[in-house]
Amino acid sequence: MKHLVYLICGIVVTVIFFILSCTDGFNIYEMMFFNQGYNDKMYSLDMYPVIAAITIAVAWGGAAIYYYAINSVKFDRWYHWLAVMGAVAVLAPVICYIYNDTVFASNGLMYVGESIKFEMQTVLFAALLYIVASFSMRWWSSNCRHTPLPQ
Amino acid sequence: MRLFLFAIGGTGSRVLKSLLMLSAAGVRPLDENGKPVKDLEIVPVIIDPHKANEDLKRTEALLNDYRDIRRKLYGNEPNAEGFFANRIVTLREIMSNTSVTLSDSFIFNLGAVENAKFREFIGFDTMNEANQALTSLLFANYQLENKMNIGFVGSPNIGSVALNEIKDSNEFKAFSNIFRQGDRIFFISSIFGGTGAAGFPIMVKNIRQAANLEGIENRDALSRAPIGGLTVLPYFTLEGNKQDQRIATSDFIVKTQSALYYYKNTLTGANDSNVNSIYYLGDQVRSKPYLYDPGEHGQRNNAHLIELIGALAPIDFAGVPDSKLTDPDGYPLPTTAYEYALAKDDLSLNFLSLGHHTRRLIYEPMSKFHLLFLFLTTGFKNMIGQGFTEDAPKIKSDFLTSQFYRTLVDHFLLGYAQWLTEMNDNMRSVALFKPGEIDMAHAIEGVGVRKRLLGHFKVDNDVFKAEMNKLSKNNPAYSDRTVEFKLMDLFNKAAHNIFMERYENIN
């Protein structure tokens, strides 16, 4: 029961993140990095929901792979978990950058410097979402349920 | 049911050690339906005046370790499954009558015997001339001068006199007070030495004639008690000693022959019901020669196949149904004699050399115990802090310094490894497991792991850890148990699953 509560909380936090990354008034992405022209284009091209979805998918996907696909006694130490977090924190911004670049290019725009700075946020959000996902789903893993911290 | 197990002499101690190893592995007596005998308590009593005997000391230490380990695992619960399943207790532990003073030991106190020379014990110097002359005819001079704290030096004629004291001892009184109808008695002794060859018939005589003894309770139950015995025939040789001929290998057969005639006339004859079941065991292939030592240097003989097979005798006896031991009125039935044969007459034995019945009884438990030995000595330490160790109750790093863990790993499993090595080095060589092999997949001699689509199944510490993780996950069975129980029970169950799935089936 307790574990189910953790899962629900994780889903709620993730949904809130998604909502806050799509809204106009308070946008979580614009809290940490704001460039009038760049952010306006991001918003007008509907890129925020996709960026958020990619970040969520990579973070939750990374956690799912660690806990249920890898799920090995050889990789049950905290540093194995941390390594997957590192991979998530690299992979998510790279995918987001490629997506950004593709969309901007198709609209005849180029924001290399701004995009790189923007994706620094994705590193952070991906890592945070990976932690949230880990604590939501790890309980049912047979070999890694006590990673990174014991239950 | 209680099984009072009298282990007499050096062979008694060594067979008892093998029984301990089998019990630690989880080998249990089975009834006629193949189910473990319920409510069994084994009460070993070692009878040996030679207290400095190394074999006795090693067995006693292992008995104490076994008792401590089992108590920590199951408390006083007689019915347990898995490792250390058989409950083993001292007489002191189960006696309720406190009028008898008894130490909490597995060793029969033979104080009156072991502190005297034989001539002093029989009062040789106070005899008249005629009796002295007769005594001198019956006993050689070295026998009269024998200080009995080194045993009876292969002389059953000394033992038969000295051990008659047993019936007056506190231990015998305590035993008779405890003994109840339904309990059984089993003797382990050799027939070619001094202590065992003499002690077995004397003890049987005293029990069967309990009605004539003073200060003994439960006389009726005792005189009707189901009695079994393992009589070990010659199986080892001694290095020759030209200066000292008190014990000679060449005498073993003659002594055996004489004793067998005596047993036939008094204990195990066709219509005799003094001993209900007698298990004869010996081997014409003799052991590697043991160091000649009548007793002065501690007498330490290597473990041997015969002792391992011998340990199966009390296990078999405990499972024999009452109807085969006593008649409908509760009186003991005449003797049934048992022998044992190997399936293959190999000089180096593995599980495949043993008959089907033995294999079914010991193969899986012993293999699982060996895997436990490998697991605890090679992999377990590094697992603390992950997986099953973090499930409640948590196994923390201080577990490694606990009394239980130290006793199990540093004492009992060390004794187990020595026992295996000694049996392996002996003749016949018992090579159930490959000595020094830490690869679990190849540790069982003659038994490999199964094939799968690509190559063979893997068996290593990680496989065990993964299986234990799986079994431990959300398992409420351990929430109110000790960490010791959790570890051993989890391993036992994991080992069973892995054994069934991954190892070749030879049963």
Give short descriptive properties of this protein:
heterodimer, A: 151 residues, mainly alpha, B: 507 residues, alpha/beta, 7-stranded parallel sheet, two-stranded parallel sheet, 18 helices, globular
Q: What would you say about this model in short?
A:
Chain A is mainly alpha-helical and 151 residues long.
Give your account of this protein's structure:
The complex is a heterodimer of chains A (151) and B (507). Chain A is an all-alpha fold and 151 residues long. Chain A has one domain (2-140). Helices cover 75% and strands 0% of the residues of chain A. Chain A is built from six helices and no strands. Chain A has helices spanning 2-22, 28-32, 36-44, 47-70, 78-106, 112-137. In chain A, helix 4 packs antiparallel against helix 5 (78-106). The longest helix of chain A has 29 residues, at 78-106. The two termini of chain A are 14 Å apart. The mean pLDDT of chain A is 94. Chain B is of the alpha/beta class and 507 residues long. Chain B has two domains: 2-110 and 150-340, 3-Layer(aba) Sandwich (Rossmann fold), CATH 3.40.50; 352-502, no CATH class. Chain B is built from 18 helices and nine strands. Chain B has helices at residues 9-25, 54-74, 91-94, 111-114, 118-121, 129-138, 141-144, 156-162, 170-178, 195-208, 219-223, 252-266, 305-310, 312-319, 356-378, 403-425, 461-472, 483-502, and strands at 2-8, 41-47, 87-88, 184-190, 227-232, 277-281, 336-338, 348-349, 429-430. A seven-stranded parallel beta sheet of chain B has the order 3-2-1-4-5-6-7, with helices on both faces. In chain B, strands 8-9 form a two-stranded parallel sheet. Chain B is globular, with a radius of gyration of 24 Å. The interface between A and B is medium-sized, with 12 and 12 residues.
